[in-house]
Design goal:
The protein is an alpha/beta fold and about 350 residues long. The protein folds into three domains: about 140 residues, Rossmann fold (3-Layer(aba) Sandwich); about 35 residues; about 110 residues, no CATH class. It contains 17 helices and five strands.
């Protein structure tokens, strides 16, 4: 049904509410995987909008406008594929800004028969579909069924190529078809409050272990890298041997690569995580002084910035607070690469 809707939607010449659908389903059943598989099979140019690159109604309107007007990447690469816009994490976007649904409604309503048609697919959990307001009366809503056992087994094989089908069936039964939970089980990242693991100490250890670090970071794909960064200066200054100039050089290189990590994560989380692990490998060139407990100093302000850093620039005029320069920089980097 979804594939047919996408294909037939390109018969529309202009934007309308028929250009937008909402895909619903229970959390973790593979909604994003399902739609991305279809879109990739159709060989379309995907524009992803989610909580990583959009944190306000103003940003959503801006991203949609740019998506319809032009695509820098398509121009530079001479890519003539048909576009499709996927708005993932719609429920999370509404939690961040409860006017996101109104912004989407107004964008479509204000541009009916003005902009050329590009299909918009919004992915949202079942529980939130009743809360999206008037737009649910205008746009089609399609419920995504659970993936079957064989499809889930294919997904789990990409994480563990030795997993048997019987083990997949056992995990499916345990998780009630929740794919995200199933992945956490086989990647050993299904932690709970009683797990005795100090994540920051693992990343600041004296042995570099890519697979172990990946399983740790998957747990909190944005917060853990930010956590690592905030404690990095203290780690280099107090807990590592080496010349000061070499430590400073590593830190400067880390900050530059951390900006690229921020960009990469918008497009592919798995590649982003692998990239982050690569950029922290340089820390292990500095020998550990001694075993110490790391001061896990993750401030409330940094937590706030991790959600809002791309939003703040919109309110800047000719001047902006000096403490927001980092946010401005990351926002400009994202604006440069997102299309």
């Amino acid at each position: 049904m979804i594939k047919e809707w996408i294909e037939t939607s390109y018969n529309n010449k202009k934007l309308s509410f028929n250009s937008c659908i909402f895909l619903t389903g229970y959390s973790g059943i593979g909604k994003t995987y399902y739609i991305n598989k279809i879109v990739n099979d159709l060989d379309l140019f995907i524009i992803n909008i989610n909580s990583n690159n959009c944190t306000s109604s103003l940003q959503l309107t801006d991203l949609l406008t740019k998506s319809y007007i032009s695509s820098l990447i398509q121009i530079l690469t001479n890519n003539n594929k048909k576009k499709i816009i996927i708005i993932d994490d719609f429920d999370i976007l509404m939690a961040i800004d409860n006017t996101i649904n109104i912004a989407l409604f107004n964008f479509i309503n204000n541009n009916i028969n003005k902009l050329n048609h590009i299909p918009i697919i919004c992915i949202i959990n079942n529980d939130l579909i009743k809360k999206i307001g008037e737009i649910k009366k205008k746009c089609k809503i399609i419920a995504i069924p659970n993936l079957d056992e064989y499809e889930i087994h294919k997904i789990l094989l990409t994480y563990d190529n030795n997993i048997t089908f019987n083990k997949t069936l056992k995990i499916i039964n345990e998780t009630n078809y929740n794919i995200s939970k199933a992945i956490k089980i086989i990647t050993l990242t299904q932690f709970n409050d009683n797990d005795e693991i100090n994540i920051i100490e693992e990343l600041y250890g004296d042995i570099f272990n890519r697979n172990k670090f990946k399983s740790i970071i998957i747990k909190e794909q944005w917060i853990i890298p930010l956590n690592f960064h905030e404690n990095l200066i203290n780690e280099l200054s107090n807990n590592r041997k080496g010349l000061k100039k070499n430590k400073e050089e590593f830190y400067k290189k880390f900050i530059k690569n951390f900006c690229f990590f921020d960009v990469i994560m918008h497009n592919n989380n798995e590649i982003g995580i692998d990239f982050f692990i690569s950029i922290i490998s340089g820390l292990y060139e500095f020998q550990k002084k001694k075993k110490e407990t790391i001061n896990n100093n993750f401030t409330k302000m940094l937590s706030y910035l991790s959600l809002q850093k791309k939003n703040n620039k919109n309110s800047y005029k000719s001047t902006f607070p000096l403490n927001q320069i980092g946010n401005y920089h990351l926002s400009m980097v994202n604006k440069k690469y997102i299309y």
